[in-house]
Protein 1
Amino acid sequence: MKNIYTRVFRGGNGLASFVAVALLLLVVLPCSLDIFRLNLLGKYLTYAFVAVGLVMLWGKAGVLSLGQGVFFGLGGYCMAMFLKLEASDPVSTKIQSTPGIPDFMDWNQLTHLPAFWIPFKSLSFSLCAVILLPTLVAFIIGMAMFKRRVGGVYFAVITQALALILSMGIDSRQGYTGGRNGITDLKTLCGWDIRTHHAQYILYFVTCALLLGAILFSQWLLSGKVGKMLLAIRDREDRVRFSGYDVSMFKVAAFCFAAALSGIGGALFVLQVGFISPSLVGIVPSIEMVIFAAVGGRASLYGAVYGTLLVNTGKSLFSENFPQLWLFAMGGLFIGVVVLFPDGLAGLCDLARKKTGLAIKKLRAGSSSITAPEIAQTIVKGEES
Amino acid sequence: MMFAYTGAELWNIAVMQGFAGLSLFSVLLLMALGLAIIFGQMGVVNLAHGEFMALGAYTVYLCSTLVSNHAPALQPYYFVIAIFVAFLVAALVGLLVEWSLIRFLYKRPLDTLLATWGLSLIMQQSFRSIFGAREVTPTLPEWLMGSFKPTPSIDIPINGVFVMGLTLLLTFGVWFFMFRSRTGLHMRATVQNRAMSDAVGINTKLVDRFTFCLGCGIAGVAGAAFTTIGSTGPDSGSRYIVDTFLVVVLGGTASLLGTIASAFGIAQAQSISEFFLEGTMGKVAVLSGIVIVLMIRPKGLFPSKVRTHS
């Protein structure tokens, strides 16, 4: 038990970060925001799943995927298919020419449910698919690419192409997928109305709990051998290979893990927002999810949560007040975070901690009576050294 | 569905469809040429490449507006000059971008990718603020309009032929420059072995800057050519960026011939599949095919034979 504790929290430091995030998500934000804003926040937190996955994949293993929206979308569509089938029971769709099938199928002259929709009548199948389908897709792609030592920018470009393929594919098969509008009008989960305020509160807390769980599990993975291997692969891949390890399998595993997390995020998105559409799958959302992780600090699990919340809050504030400036701000953010702060918020925190630590050390070494200007001076000196 | 046509009709369709494929081929090749230099030679992923094309297109639009407002007599000739202006403008902006952004990121290719995506967002919004969200079309000279008809039922547009000619010219120019000029030699030497090139007295930093600049300039020319076949909007560049990258990657990054071959293959596959499959499904099929080929042959169809130190 103690072993797990030290692995997950790495002593007191990790515990403090965890408690800070947990307090913010579970106490501070629910107490200070109305349900509309909280629901919006819950939506952002589903992106944080993707960001946490990217921290594992990109920050730790050094593999950048620009197609995480694919997995987010797959998870989301699996959930949405179940909810849509529940929402289109024969009674409520009796005005259609074929009752009992989703409305967009009826509009597209389909007369029976396509075969691949049928298993999604079962909740347990759908929940498994939310996790397993993205993992499977990631496994196939990962095996094909990493086994042949395709990495770096090639991997990024090809995953970006996948995001384009999936979003265009969904878009063009309207009768089977809902097309550009996506799957909408989702109402209940096993009879439980997910649109009420009460349900939105519960879903928000479920999202938070799962997110915190995902972070702790990732932390546990990283503190063991896997974490060390991933870092070693990121920093000197050929040396790891020469030491006799199968580098590609570690990369595949990291890719699958990131995909599974994204899938869970997508499913929670659907539950909270009530729809899914190809616009959440394509190139733009996929690359935006990378910037969430980059702003928080690409190698920091907790940073991913802060980064996601910060960028999305900024996005909604900007697009409400200065819509023309939003793209400039986003573009500047991409450039700034890469050129000036490659370690993101987490890097800034570390820097601040180091400086104040230095200052405090010097203060303790010095005399007991110190004035404010002297403290400032010590901090400045700490910056210089 | 194929049996509903007579033999002559099928032949006409094949000719027109083949021409559409050739037209798409020249478009893809034009886009990919600049990228083949920047990505293939330098290994820099420039996601703002499409915006450099849009920049070239907007430059032509500006030239056209200026000419029709101030010197209508020049109307038939301005387009040729506008192509050069588009090259210069795109190359200059490229120079600025290399100097202010790219040169700090040569050691971090994945970060270049994110930074140039940011750049593309900024350029898109700049276009939108300056030229408006609506698509614009420059006034084309008379000789670019219309079409010619070798037989009554075959219809070949002149602007398509023009784009094709320009593509041929530009491809030849790039080949000549890369393989027959001293600067091209320096560029290839820098790609193969940077340290050694430095040691024999090549200013590799200058070569980098020049290469990036040249690639952007070619993107500008591509954009200028596109104004003859379609209108330009703030986000027209970003629509093609993935296709362009796939052309270069599928061809094998360091090979000019590979880029040409893959542009040809993708264009023909796409125009044929678009004829038989409805809507965007044809494009989805082609893109999936490319990705599958790339999974089997990750270095592309024409991989470089040179071993490089990575």
Note: The interface with chain A takes residues 39, 43, 45, 101, 104-105, 108-111, 113-115, 117-122, 124-125, 128-129, 242, 245-246, 249, 278-281, 283-284, 287-288, 290-291, 294-296, 298 of chain B (CB under 8 Å).
Protein 2
Amino acid sequence: MKRLQEVKSNEALDLYYPTMCEIVDAKQLTDLEKWYELKLPGGQDLGHEPGQFVEVSAFGIGEAPISISSSPSKEGSFELCIRQVGTLTKVLKRYEKGDTLGIRGPFGKGYPIEKMYGKDILIVAGGIGLVPLRSLINFVLDNRQEFGRLIILYGAKNPSELLFTDELDVWQRRDDVELHVTVDQGDPSWEGNTGVITTLIPELDLNLNKTIAAITGPPIMYKFVVMSLKSKQLPDSHIYLSLERRMKCGVGKCGHCQINGVYCCQEGPVFNYVDIKPLEEAL
Amino acid sequence: MECYSLKQSDVPALIDHLGAYGEVIAPHRKGDVSYSFEPVKDSEKVVLEYNRTLLPLKKCFLPPTEKLMDFSLKDMSYKPTEVPIKPAVYFGIHSYEMQSILRLDHSMLSGKAESNYFNRRKKSRFIGVSFSPDEYHFSESVGISIEEMEGFDLYLNKVSDDYQLYIISDKGKDLLKGFDKLIQAEPIHVEGREFNKKIRYHYNRLPRVFQYAYHSKVWAEVAERCVGCGSCNLTCPTCFCFDVNDQVEVTAEDGMRRRSWDSCMLSTFAEVAGGENFREHTLNRTRHRLYRKFKYITDEEGLPWCVGCGRCTAFCPADISMVDIINDLIREDEKAQFHKTVRV
């Protein structure tokens, strides 16, 4: 048990004060999602890992945990992409280039990059799950020779909800990226795959010993994707998932993000499947 | 351990003496049946024989609401709230309450240590007092006796009509410098202060009970009676979860960010934007609260995170009893063990 006497005065931290960041660019990507590029004072790097999150603060409204969407290899600024579904995020829709937002973080554990070097990376992104995974994808692309295959499965409800379509086009054209996009429901102009994301998994040809899967999507998606990957015989320890919880403080205090006894903001949001299997509340 | 006798009539003089160190906070009567920890204005008004205060002592270190900052919407700037390090004496504290502060220390200072809590806690001194357990106290069942002195600087043990004062720490000794109403005494063991409410098992057996209790039918039985008001969390001396909210002035130019106690028993506690709720039912939340007290942190730290003050039970509007829940879980566990044995 941690004792008061063990804490030196300089170890007690002001945990709840944001750093004000300027929005240097912003763009509404779909009806619901907006993309922001932010700059820390003096253009310093955020110093994050792919998969980590920040607490975004708009005075008068509050704070919300938001995934970082840019790769750590991008210097001088970082990017967020925010779905407008909550009290804060709906207000953020009004924030444009030149406005300032408060940022705390980065927080949590991201993807274990050291364990991923030399491996085939299988990305499974459902809906806005692509936002945090884009950080990992772009990190792999910026260090392309350090990784094996890059397979990206991306599913959205319908074509109008597809995010980062410019980048999807670039990834589609690259011969060192295997991109498979599907939508639950197509429209007349849609020529790609139709069906939920798990329909893309059976036909994958995976090198099981070498493949590491990174999954992010709506809560309902995880069980089905994990089941499909297990039926491909991918070992549990090769599966990483990023879980959504209400990470209010980001520093392991406020209690809102607990999954059973685990603080999602401290031990996650990226978890190895082996570690969350025993947690009844996880999936 | 140094032991002195102190006359009941000299207690106000001791409180006044302690005031030289800093503000003294002690139990006071509040209404006909309730007690509250309040700053001492008149040492004669301090009540040393009380069962429990409504709000736990944690309110002094983790206030029910506290301002984190003032902000301006005009230029999007903010001014942090400084929490000064002030000396203070907490007088007339029960052993379970002291143990709850030691547990709060761990919760707020392990991992990333929080400055707000640290500053309030830094120069605090604690003077314990013995108590007579009522029908709700069960701290002995979680390993905390009436005379547990860990964490205190001084301790007052009621012996017939007067007190024996124990010096526990050097800081406690310093507090007494210049106080001349003490007479050296031989420690007396007080008999007959018994706990009426008991958990049937020793607390070191509870993690095993909880290991197999996750799907027990007991949770649904409790959830049926629970009204989900969250009083159990708000009166719990070791609950530390909080919420953070912004408040804007009518001028819409300035405002403040505040944090307030929150409650995992409230239905929206684990809800995320978009409506997904990860502990949607009262059953999930009741279970989570009990697991937080007897399993999750206990597995890491080896101690129950419940200190047996009995507040959650005494103040529950639905008469839900922590001890009864645990004894029900124990009974269900024994039944399951019995069936297993019979089958073999």
Note: Chain B has two domains: 2-64+79-184, 203-343.
